[in-house]
Amino acid sequence: MSKTDNGTCKKERIAVFPGSFDPFTIGHYSIVNRALAFVDKIVVAIGVNGAKHTLFDLSTRKSIIHQAFANEPRVVVDSYDQLTVDYAKKVGATIILRGIRSIQDFEYEKTIADANRQISGIDTILLFTEPQHSFISSTVVRDVFRYGKDVAPFMPPGIDITKLAKKE
User: Fold this and answer.
1) Which one from 3, 52, 53, 163 is the annotated catalytic residue?
2) Which of 44, 63, 138, 160 has the greatest CB tally within 10 Å of its CB?
3) Could you say which of 28, 41, 62, 133 is catalytic?
4) Is the torsion defined by CA of 83, 89, 90, 96 positive or negative?
5) Domain positions in the chain
6) How many H-runs (helices) and E-runs (strands) does the chain carry?
7) Active site residue: 89, 101, 110, 142, which one?
8) Is 61 noted as a catalytic residue in this protein?
9) Which residues pair with 80 in a beta bridge?
10) CATH number at 9-130+144-165
């Protein structure tokens, strides 16, 4: 709970922004920054799936996000290995935040959002990616990176994954 200007209490609006974030891109960064206009706190929650091979390990992915939001105390980074709605309830979130780039993303996210609401009552807010970021995905960034090309334009400001990858 937080206090309003007149001293009354209001429930803190917490959103969970789930994903594998391998890596966290400028598109993800934009979604979080824009969502901060209507929520009090965002938990960027990295889903852990042992069967999924990632380019960056969990601690590196957390580090990238921590660096990106070093000056924003309303953004918290965590990881989880359960249903997203169960994790959201655990952290007191009432919103699941998702970004969409295309109609294909929308159809997939709508199906998941409907299921999440049905089993938990938690709503999903979808934000459209800004047009200049609509082609950027973690998959594209990984592929470009693997072939030695510069991925800086696809990353949050100040994030250099070439330095992080050498630590892997």
Assistant:
1) 52
2) 44
3) 28
4) positive
5) 9-130+144-165
6) 6, 7
7) 101
8) no
9) 47
10) 3.40.50.620
